[in-house]
Amino acid sequence: MQTVKVEIPQNQAGSYPIFIGQGLLENAGTYIKQYTKAKKLLVVSNNTINSLYGEEVKKSLEQAGYEVYFLLLEEGEQYKNADSLQKIWTEAIRLKLERKDALIALGGGVIGDVTGLAASTYLRGVGFIQLPTTLLAQVDSSIGGKVAINHDSGKNLIGSFYQPKAVLADISALKTLSLREFKVGLAEVLKYGFIEKSCGLSGLNSSFSLYLMENKASIMALEPSIVENLVKYCCRLKAAVVNKDEKESGLRAILNFGHTTGHAVEKCYGYKGINHGEAVAIGMKGAFFIAMEKGLISQKYFEDALSLLNNYEMDYRIEKNISIDSLYEAMQVDKKVQSGKIRFILPVSPSEVRIFDDVNKQQLNNALKKLY
Ligand SMILES: NC(=O)c1ccc[n+]([C@@H]2O[C@H](COP(=O)([O-])OP(=O)(O)OC[C@H]3O[C@@H](n4cnc5c(N)ncnc54)[C@H](O)[C@@H]3O)[C@@H](O)[C@H]2O)c1
């Protein structure tokens, strides 16, 4: 078992451990004991995850002396909405949860985001613990305190920043993920390879991209020591960024590498037929094409980056019936637009990115055309 600490200097409540290892869910009670004084715990999950891991989590939490209740939400991104939030509030009120009690998110990013928002608002804030069960949630969404629901007008439009008290990333849970869902997380993992040097992690002496290239077979085979190291390193990179910029006033924006185009693609598909990781993989390729248009990177780095993406079979393409104009329109209503300018995170050298507000329409058009 390995631990990464998130320590946000401006936020006293923003210091917590991320435990990473095998068998953490069956020992959840022992791990969370020192991070909550709760009497009652409300575990929020869905049917699929509950049928796989609910029983062991319940048993462990009860053995640790908690009163444990479960609320199962409908499954899917479309349920990351106000109805689910309302259901959690209603259940918390029915159970008479008090401020010292806690909500536990057992699931992927959808469950984590909606449960975190409920925890941040119910009684103006109760304890919140993340038990992430997807690769994406373990390397990304469970860390850093962004919690949100979607609105009909766009993803994650209603949310807040609310840090968990602890995160338990049990890598054994990844065994039951479908390959497609595993690859969603891998897209975010590859993203860390492209932004590594910009994250501000001290003592960097290796290349994460190289590690990913060299260990592909072990990663795909879920070799525990390799996956544990991979999750740990991604958590360290994300924690380094969040520690410096909790509320995304600057540096944190680099975590959106690939997401400007990625979110536009997801939106144009109506969030159906393509998932977040696939869209982000397209968006990361788009960022490399834009960087070439702007003359920011060498041909060698461009080719290395594309070959890393292709090596992980991230060779997705935008369907022909989605027009460049509709992508452009979608980018203009994204949260990342500032003073009317579309913001891109672009590569400038190996593993290094910068924020750009000056991509012109011609450069963007030329790059987007190559994504079909
Ligand atoms: N808060 C943040 O900082 C942040 C960052 C990135 C993404 N997100 C959000 O995360 C969400 C996506 O999260 P996700 O990719 O984890 O998807 P998800 O939560 O929808 O989970 C994917 C699917 O896998 C199933 N599942 C989960 N764990 C499983 C397991 N161990 N075995 C078998 N099936 C399992 C789920 O039931 C679901 O059907 C999006 O809503 C996105 O906006 C948030």
Keywords:
372 residues, alpha/beta, Rossmann fold, Dehydroquinate synthase-like, alpha domain, seven-stranded mixed sheet, two-stranded antiparallel ribbon, 14 helices, 11 strands, 44% helix, globular, binds nicotinamide-adenine-dinucleotide
Describe the protein.
The protein is of the alpha/beta class and 372 residues long. The protein has two domains: 2-176, Rossmann fold (3-Layer(aba) Sandwich), CATH 3.40.50; 187-369, Dehydroquinate synthase-like - alpha domain (Dehydroquinate synthase-like, alpha domain, Up-down Bundle). It has 14 helices and eleven strands. The protein has a seven-stranded mixed β-sheet, with helices on both faces. A hairpin with a 7-residue loop joins strand 1 and strand 2 (15-21). Helix 5 (135-141) packs parallel to helix 9, helix 6 packs antiparallel against helix 7 (208-214) and helix 11 crosses helix 14 (361-369). It is globular. The chain binds nicotinamide-adenine-dinucleotide (NAD). Nicotinamide-adenine-dinucleotide (NAD) is lined by residues 46, 48-49, 52, 75, 77, 80, 107-111, 113, 133-134, 136-137, 140-141, 144, 146, 155-156, 173, 176-177, 181, 184, 276. Nicotinamide-adenine-dinucleotide binds at residues 46, 48-49, 52, 75, 77, 80, 107-111, 113, 133-134, 136-137, 140-141, 144, 146, 155-156, 173, 176-177, 181, 184, 276.
What's the helix and strand layout?
Layout: E1 2-7, E2 15-21, H1 28-32, E3 40-46, H2 47-63, E4 67-73, H3 82-94, E5 102-107, H4 109-121, E6 127-132, H5 135-141, E7 146-151, E8 154-161, E9 166-170, H6 179-195, H7 208-214, H8 216-220, H9 224-244, H10 259-268, H11 276-293, H12 299-311, H13 324-332, E10 344-349, E11 352-356, H14 361-369
Parallel strand pairs: 2-9, 3-4, 3-5, 5-6, 6-9
Antiparallel strand pairs: 1-2, 7-8, 10-11
Helix pairs in contact: 3-4, 5-6, 5-9, 6-7, 6-11, 10-11, 10-13, 11-12, 11-14
